[in-house]
Write a structure and sequence with these properties.
The structure holds two protein chains of two kinds.
Chain A lengths: L3 E12 L3 H12 L3 E5 L41 E2 L8 E2 L9 E2 L23 H5 L9 H15 L24 H12 L5 E2 L34 H11 L3 E5 L2 E8 L5 E8 L4 E12 L3 H10 L24 E8 L20 E2 L15 E7 L28 H10 L3 E8 L8 E9 L5 E6 L4 H20 L3 E2 L48 E3 L14 H20 L4
Parallel strand pairs in A: 1-2, 1-10, 2-7, 4-16, 10-18
Antiparallel strand pairs in A: 3-5, 6-12, 8-9, 9-10, 11-14, 11-17, 13-14, 15-16
Chain B lengths: L2 H7 L8 H5 L25 H12 L5 H14 L13 H11 L4 H19 L8 H11 L13 H18 L2 H7 L14 H7 L5 H6 L21
Helix pairs in contact in B: 4-5, 5-8, 6-8
The chains are: A alpha/beta, B mainly alpha.
């Protein structure tokens, strides 16, 4: 089979169209460069009526929203999931890493929670504080201008709180709390825990003439048809196209490797067209990998050549290493004071929390390093598959029988509707050299591309943090006069700590640093080993704060992309 | 531009130039607020592969006619109709048929449980469950409808597991239907402007907003005005 080569030489080839790739596309195209965007999945536009799931009712589907084909329910706007047919990944030494992939234009930005937190000054220099992990080679001051521009370009609601490690930005005003959130505020204050308005990238107010304003359907996970939430397609790639950008979009194109020349410089990429299952090559002056931390590591490791025998950018043997996800642990409670609710109003709100608790404690008094924030959910949501299961389970708290049949079930469903509140703790883990993804020498995917094999063990740092989350959640539920649901997770259950990867904040596989022996990229996310290859996904994160990673992916991608434009103009690369 | 035309141009894996996509996205016609957001009745956002799976499952029949009749009788006992309608208007039996194919792990419990019902009814009353008198049907259900919440459901007898599964699917099928959602009273899934919990609801639950917090929240009368800030991040508009 002959590989088909395109004759065009792009200024840059961008692999992946999620947060990092979308931002690179916008910055490079706006600067007048000719770019190719290579995306593994199909074209997607949330405004397309055929693809849209927003405002669909459960009865429009025969499975009523069940998660058979989409793990977060069938309305979720991610094409992919933790398992993708024909694209396996494997595990080593009993590891249970969960790898979520979304293959479509915009990637995971179409369904994410839009929680948009800046890393704070301490988050870039944690080693200086607790001696663990590694400092970033950059500081908050290097990133702040990009966070500022990002807030104005994309939009994020929030409030000025003057918290030292949760920096304020250019915020849109937040929505008012919902009923269960008022209960949360009261409960948290009882334990002297701070609660502040959420910080999410949804437009509670108009930000420009191209995007609509939030209409409070609570369905950002379905991607917004009026572009009132941030998705990479609707907020970065489409506007760059509209602006006259020279953007060639290659969809359903699975990148196999970065190609290099006799000097070891990148010449472009090769990919498999999923439609005709043939291999193609694209040529570019610069290659930007933004396929997600693990996918980009996979491409690098699969890009072996005489000049890069250990894989591209891997002379340090660190590609794939220091893989780390946020810690996560969850709990829910039944709140009797939230029973018998009036359904006279619509409380969908935005698709996420209107209030949250940023990390609030001092590690000096704790048995674990780093911290976590608390996300809150609850309310009278739209029924979907699973609604009404164990309908009167809470009868047990009143000494009443559970189960039964007949009209009483109808009354029970209404009585308990909206009476549950839940918490998710999302915290910072310590990046470990021994937590990694690598190429599995025995397995390929349906495109013949060698797949990833994971090795990831939590340490007691993360387990003890999860234990603290559980204790906090139970205290909060008691403060609200509620009943904790489920048993307290035990030590053997890692205190309810989710498997690594499950929180879908995996970062660190091509970490940045000044020293080429202890890092893969420099502070501009440029490979130490190959100066015309950059990584603009979360791979270069040296550490990950207890903040969700997307806002920082975007800010850093903007920063790296400006550097690329500058270097191309100066003909340095 | 029609998406089918644009898809023709986006030959999968080949170049789709920026011009091709220009015509497909909203520009200034994007609604200023959101009231034009609409749900299209012809699609429900499935990928071609997902539609294929649904067609395939719809072409199969899992429960036979007798089983479907028994399911209908049983679901009506679990949730008798009221003035809004009942499980038949909500399409619950068809939904259960679909889910048995969509999640094959449910099949044995469903089918085995239906057999158990008929066996029990035949043994005690000499007729199949679906035609047994309602009082006798209820006599059977009374034995299996309640579960011990202290024991995991998977460790309870099959007939109790079966009934719990039927009750779960009856309720979920009903409350995810149009009439069930109306019966429940859910008011969302429609464009609106959230401006806080109504006062009567706050009063009922004994909570209140603090003024300081409210002062930071969005002024919905200015939601259509483009945001501008001063250099310190204070919103000016």
């Amino acid at each position: 089979m002959q590989i088909k080569e395109s004759t065009t030489i792009y200024d840059a080839i961008i692999v992946g169209s999620g947060a990092g790739g979308g931002m690179s596309t916008k910055i490079l195209a706006d600067a007048g460069l000719k770019v190719a965007v290579v995306e593994a999945g199909p074209y997607f536009d949330p405004a397309d009526p055929e693809q849209r799931t927003q405002l669909k009712w459960p009865y429009e589907s025969p499975r009523r929203g069940a998660g058979t084909t989409r793990v977060f329910g069938e309305w979720d706007m991610a094409y992919g999931g933790f398992e993708i047919e024909g694209q396996p990944y494997t595990q080593k030494d009993g590891t249970k890493f969960e790898w979520f992939r979304s293959q479509m234009l915009g990637g995971r930005t179409n369904h994410w929670g839009r929680i948009s937190l800046r890393f704070g000054p301490d988050d870039f220099k944690r080693k200086d504080i607790d001696g663990l992990g590694e400092n970033w080679p950059i500081s908050y001051d290097d990133v702040k201008p990009y966070y500022d521009k990002l807030d104005k370009l994309i939009g994020v609601f929030g409030t000025k709180e003057n918290l030292p490690n949760d920096p304020d930005g250019f915020f849109l005003p937040p929505p008012k709390p919902r009923l269960h959130e008022l209960f949360y505020i009261k409960g948290a204050r009882k334990s002297n825990m701070p609660v502040i308005p959420g910080r999410l990238s949804m437009l509670t107010k108009k930000i420009n003439n191209d995007r609509g304003v939030c209409f409070y359907c609570g369905q950002c996970g379905r991607s917004c048809q009026v572009y009132a939430d941030f998705s990479s397609g609707s907020c970065l790639i489409f506007p760059a196209q509209k602006n006259g950008g020279q953007i060639d979009l290659y969809v359903n194109a699975m990148v196999r490797e970065v190609t290099t020349d006799a000097e070891g410089k990148a010449t472009g990429v090769s990919y498999v067209n999923r439609e005709d299952r043939k291999e193609y090559k694209l040529k570019g002056k610069v290659v930007i990998l933004a396929a997600s931390a693990c996918s980009s590591a996979r491409i690098l490791l699969n890009s072996k050549s005489a000049q890069h025998p250990n894989g591209l950018g891997n002379s340090s043997d660190l590609v794939g290493r220091y893989l780390h996800d946020s810690t996560g642990s969850s709990r829910a409670g039944f709140i009797p004071d939230l029973m018998n609710r009036k359904t006279s109003y619509n409380e969908d709100g935005v698709g996420g929390m209107h209030v949250y608790t940023p990390w609030w404690l001092d590690n000096k008094n704790l048995d674990f390093p780093r911290g976590y924030h608390i996300e809150v959910w609850g309310g009278m949501g739209m029924p979907n598959y699973g609604f009404g299961f164990n309908a009167n389970e809470f009868n047990r708290f009143f000494g009443l029988p559970t189960g039964g049949y007949g009209d009483s079930l109808r009354a029970d469903v209404k009585k308990y509707y909206g009476s549950v509140i839940g918490f998710g703790g999302r915290g910072e883990s310590i990046a470990q050299r021994d937590n990694y993804c690598e190429i599995d020498p025995t397995t390929v995917d349906e495109f013949g591309i060698p797949v990833l094999r994971f090795h990831y063990k939590w340490t007691d740092y993360e387990r003890l943090q999860a234990k603290h989350m559980q204790e906090t959640f139970e205290e909060l539920i008691h403060n609200m006069g509620g009943e904790v649901l489920g048993d307290t997770p035990t030590k053997e259950q890692d205190y309810g700590l989710h498997n690594p990867g499950n929180i879908i904040h995996e970062v660190g596989t091509t970490r940045m640093g000044d020293n080429p022996r202890t890092s893969v990229t420099n502070k501009y996310q440029q490979l130490h080993d190959c100066d015309n290859v950059f990584i603009t996904d979360a791979g270069p994160f040296t550490s990950q704060a207890d903040k969700n990673c997307t806002w920082t992916i975007l800010a850093l991608s903007w920063r790296a992309s400006e550097y690329i434009v500058d270097q191309l103009k100066q003909q340095n690369i | 531009m029609d998406r089918r035309d644009s898809l023709k141009s986006i030959i999968l894996g080949s170049v789709a130039g920026s011009l091709i996509i220009h015509g497909c996205k909203p520009g200034t016609e994007t609604p200023e607020t959101s009231t034009s957001a609409a749900s299209d009745e012809h699609y429900f956002g499935r990928t071609p592969e997902e539609l294929e799976l649904i067609d395939k499952l719809n072409a199969e029949q899992f429960f036979n006619e007798h089983e479907m009749e028994t399911i209908t009788v049983l679901c009506n006992l679990i949730l008798p109709p009221n003035e809004k309608g009942g499980i038949e208007e909500a399409g619950v039996p068809e939904f259960i048929e679909f889910m048995a194919k969509d999640i094959p792990q449910l099949q044995t419990t469903f089918r085995g449980g239906l057999m158990w019902l008929d066996h029990k009814s035949n043994t005690e009353f000499g007729t199949e469950f679906k035609v047994t008198a309602e009082a006798q049907q209820k006599q059977i259900l009374d034995e299996i409808a309640f579960y011990d919440h202290k024991i995991p459901i998977s460790e309870q007898p099959l007939e109790i597991q079966f009934f719990a599964l039927m009750r779960d699917h009856t309720l979920t099928g009903y409350y995810t239907s149009k009439i069930g959602i109306e019966d429940l009273g859910y008011k969302g899934n429609t464009p609106n402007v959230w401006d806080g919990v109504p006062q009567d609801v706050l009063d009922q639950h004994g909570v209140a907003y603090d003024e300081e917090w409210l002062a930071k929240c969005v002024d919905q009368s200015k939601r259509g005005v483009i945001a501008e800030w001063d250099d310190d991040g204070n919103l000016l508009t």
